Amino acid sequence: MFHIPSRLPTSTCRLLNPRTSLLVMAVRGRKSRTDPKAKSKAGRVKVPPPVDPVEMVVLKERFAQYGMIVRALRFEFKEEVLQQKYEQEVGSQAEERAKQEADRHRALMAWNDAENLRMRKLREIRVLKEQEEAKQKEAELAILRENKMESFVKEKEQEILQLEEDAKTFITMENLDHRIEEALDNPINYNFAIDKEGRVVKRTVLQ
After folding, report:
1. Are the C-beta atoms of residues 16 and 10 closer than 8 Å to each other?
2. Up-side HSE of residue 78: CA atoms within 13 Å toward CB?
3. By CB atoms within 10 Å of each CB, which of 3, 30, 127, 181 scores lowest?
């Protein structure tokens, strides 16, 4: 057991030890590592308390949100403290730098507006040019379609004229006898042979 010095009343110290006022008393303390287990807890088995899974999920989410909020607050406070410290240390330089940044921002915005206006004018010119080119192409296509239609009409007229010219040699009921007599008077022999160049090399005599 541990013994600690303790100050007692004067009368008690005089009774126990008249030469000194200190007395070492035995006090109750913790067990040492080598002490055996208590008999009342020999068969005790530690069982952890039951955990609700739904509650555990909710608690994890809340702890995560809490940690995130605390970190954000710490970061915000740290930024604020650093900003204040920077302003205190720099002073007028920070104001001058902020003014320069504002002037630079205004200059950049003015340049951006001017560039946007320039690009808008170029875009309008390009759109007008594209519209004119589209109109010109459409007119050219219309002229081409008209020329094709005229050529088609002329070709059909030529075919009609050729058909009328060929119709003069058609066999009709009026010239049937005459065409028969003409064919009999002028027989044509189609029984002949030709070479590779298409020339007649042999002709059979009509019987």
Report:
1. no
2. 6
3. 30
Q: What are the pLDDT tens digits along the chain (207 aa)?
A: 444 444 444 444 444 554 545 555 555 678 888 988 888 888 888 888 998 999 999 999 999 999 999 999 999 999 999 888 877 777 667 677 788 899 999 999 999 999 999 999 999 999 999 999 999 999 999 999 999 999 999 999 999 999 888 888 888 888 888 888 888 888 887 788 888 888 887 777 766
Range 91-130 burial, b when 16+ CB lie within 10 A, else e? eeeeeeeeeeeeeeeeeeeeeeeeeeeeeeeeeeeeeeee
What interhelical angle do 92-167 and 53-90 show, nearest 10? Answer: 110
Please report where in the chains the tokens 């042999």 appear, as a residue.
202
Half-sphere exposure of 151 (CA within 13 A, CB side): 6
